């Protein structure tokens, strides 16, 4: 039996795209745009798609996020943006529930 976390508690919002890219974590910048995060910044969600000047961002729900560095542990883990569109383990970061880690694909599935 396969386990899927897709669409559980999802909330998507459309923001003006401020240089963000699909498949990357983002923040909301001072202009109200979905924008890339710098390393160690708190991220608000995952950019699911960019169409022209608009970005669809998953703010709540489960998402598979790319990670760099050490693999996050399952359970509650502190994460922050890694500055390259993914996340990293960061003891000063926000706490997220990690339910799956794929070390081959370097993704961690978390509840946003």
Structural overview:
The chain has 112 residues and is mostly beta strands. The protein has no helices and ten strands. The strands form two sheets. The protein has a five-stranded antiparallel beta sheet with strand order 1-5-4-2-3, with no helix packed on it. It has a five-stranded antiparallel beta sheet with strand order 6-10-9-7-8, with no helix packed on it. A hairpin with a 4-residue loop joins β9 and β10. The radius of gyration is 13 Å and the shape is globular. It starts with 10 loop residues before the first strand and ends with a strand.
Strand order of the largest sheet: 1-5-4-2-3
Beta-strand segment tally: 10
Note the total helix count.
Answer: 0
Query: On the 0-100 scale, what is the average pLDDT?
Result: 96
Strand residue percentage: over 45%
Uncertain parts: none
Main β-sheet description:
5 strands, antiparallel
**Helical content class:** under 10%
Structural class: mainly beta
Shape: globular
Q: Over all CA atoms, what is the radius of gyration? A: 13 Å
How do the SSEs run, as a string of H and E?
Answer: EEEEEEEEEE
The first-to-last residue Cα distance is: 25 Å
Chart the SSEs and their pairings.
Elements: E1 11-16, E2 25-28, E3 34-36, E4 45-51, E5 54-60, E6 62-66, E7 75-81, E8 87-89, E9 94-102, E10 107-111
Antiparallel strand pairs: 1-5, 2-3, 2-4, 4-5, 6-10, 7-8, 7-9, 9-10
